[in-house]
Amino acid sequence: MFATRPIPGIRRRRCAEPRTTGLVIALLVGWAGSAAGQADTATWNAVGRTLQTPPTAAAGYTRYNFPRRDITLHIGDVTVSPSLALGAWAGFAGTRDSAVAMGDLVLLGAELPSVLRQLQQAGFSVEAIHNHLAGESPAISYVHFHGEGPALALATAVDSALRRTATPRPVAMAAPEPLTIDTAAVFSTLGLRGRAAGGVAQVSTVLVPGMVTMHGKTLVPALAYGSPINLQAVSAERMVGTGDFAILEERVAGLVAALADHHITATAMHSHLVGESPRVYYIHFWADGTPADVLAGLRAALDAAGHRP
Known about the structure:
Blueprint: H1 23-26, H2 41-51, E1 56-57, E2 62-67, E3 73-75, E4 78-80, H3 82-85, E5 87-94, E6 99-108, H4 112-122, E7 125-130, E8 136-137, E9 140-149, H5 151-162, H6 183-190, E10 194-197, E11 200-205, E12 213-214, E13 217-218, H7 221-225, E14 227-235, E15 238-247, H8 252-261, E16 265-270, E17 276-277, E18 281-289, H9 291-304
Helix pairs in contact: 2-5, 4-5, 6-9, 8-9
């Protein structure tokens, strides 16, 4: 067991809290509360200064990105863009004095022990440690974390964990690149809008209907169970893609079948949360083929997951 020396203000969440009828009341005061309870811009800017990266507005939360541009990742003969599969991040929601932080750290094997020790000592819950890819070199671990407390205390803890890695910071803006991926085809085929730079396009959606709660608090959907899809143009005739579909149990079989039918590999299926209700499954994938085939397969998977443009 690691020693536990939480950063002041961070509340350690109990992992086996029983669910009772009191949950109905708790839903009314969850993290996805009214705009009046949200932190102001100055708070999120201060968090960004602590994390050495600028804040980005997302759907219901504020996001901070830490792409692992220090890692040259290969899958087969493909050099993977950092924005395709190496996008570590932290998301914050709530108020200055009562915030939630969740995110995903992208780690090399040698970095894993000290980062886990630091998160534990700071009072964070580690929600998952696992792979998102298969056959990548070097091997990468993805660590999902969750913390509650004052926003700046949470930021200090995340900063301390990042300092135990080679993650480049301060995060510099990537140099502008000519767009080499057909965003019109990506966005129209998938029925989703997103962003693109260079050869990579990114889209995201939420595939779980209704609310998901964890230990009496309502989760911010895009923060806790968004479904990102990232695509990289390798050439005019070849596209690769990765990401994950966050779905409920009844959609799992159909989604896995849709991926297999279109020659897209499901590389992992697991949880990113602990104690959520209803249970959410995260299915990661690796696609490699012609742009038309990759996009058609991912559209079929979205349809199987219940996405309606």
